[in-house]
Model the fold of this input.
Amino acid sequence: MTHTPPPKKSLGQHWLHDADALGAMCDAAEVGADDTVLEIGPGLGTLTTLLTKRAKAVVAVEFDESLAQALPGRVGADNLTTQQHDILTFDLTTLPRGYKIVANIPYYLTSNLIRVISESLNPPAVAVLLVQKEVAERVAARPGDMSLLSVSAQFYWEVANGREVSAGLFTPPPKVDSQILILKKRSEPLFPGVDIQVFFQIVKAGFSSRRKTLLNSLSAGLRIDKKRAGELLTTAKVETGLRPQSLALPQWYALYQAAQSLKLV
Done:
């Protein structure tokens, strides 16, 4: 009988054995016989085993050295490649174009992982991530509840939330429920010809003082006086009294265009 190592709290490890939840993740990614799937943090290999039965190839990247070494023996599949690595520094360009990500990831990893795959030269076609329910809701937020995370994710991806997975299905149970987050790569850029660095300079400036109005936060974040900030908002046809969480992505694009026309960036 294979020894089951205890989850490491320091690595945010929570084992999920629920067949329905694991199957729902594979279904959300539409994993098929022609797919290469990247799994992040395979742990004991319960999801890995399912993926190897559905996909052409599975690349499992595990940070925990002992788990990485044990995984091939646990899963016993010829189409599995295991690498012991930190996913945030893993070279995604080594994977075939159009690969998919399916993963139950530690909660602390979510924001950084979304940033890394979004900015990669070889992003996945789809990423299905089991994350903290609150984080899934933040990523998929609508205007009124937007954040830098939701703007960033929705700039690159079509975002949807799948089924919820209760905390009691994990070992050990986390303090909160989880939810399947589905990120589908946009086939065309949301806004063509955007200087991404400048676009997010505007967005970050807008969210620099979340509790303040855009007039104040853009003034502080872009280091311009309030008169110029007001001119920026007027040119973009955005109300000066709005707060950043209220804006939809087209309004951020209008601010980006206005800032360039006014030579503020």
About this structure: The mean pLDDT is 93.
